[in-house]
Write a structure and sequence with these properties.
Helices cover 64% and strands 6% of the residues. The chain is mainly alpha-helical. It has 2 domains: 2-88, no CATH class; 100-138, no CATH class. The chain has a two-stranded antiparallel ribbon. A hairpin with a 5-residue loop joins strand 1 (100-103) and strand 2 (109-112). The chain is rod-shaped, with a radius of gyration of 29 Å. The protein starts with a helix and ends with a helix.
Amino acid sequence: MDTETSRIKKFLFKNSPFQIVIFIATIILISNLNAIVDSFLHPEIPYFDKEHLIVGGVTGLVGAVLFGFIITYTRHLESALSKIKKLESILPICSGCKNIRTLDAENNPAWRSVESYIGEHTEIKFSHSICPECMEKLYP
């Protein structure tokens, strides 16, 4: 159970003490917002009024739960994005003709040249040339 708790803590607060400080400060501010506004607009109502404590507690609890959901969802998105980047870094390439396998509009496998694939997915422009070895092989 302890390892599960530490895993959840690492997942929610991934190496970020600043995130924890901002999280706690925001929850405290949201919890006290009703009392702060009332102290300016209605100074006759005491700051630690029973109603302020109840509203502040409920607001803080709801805020903490919502921030927890936001942080969890953000971590899941970051995890999914890193998996996508890893999968995109692996290119299925033909060992013979050096074409790259991609998916067309209907999600069917299609083979495209390296030049067209890289030109579509990056800012790289190709300038064709020929190396000395190929020059001798193709044009003896």
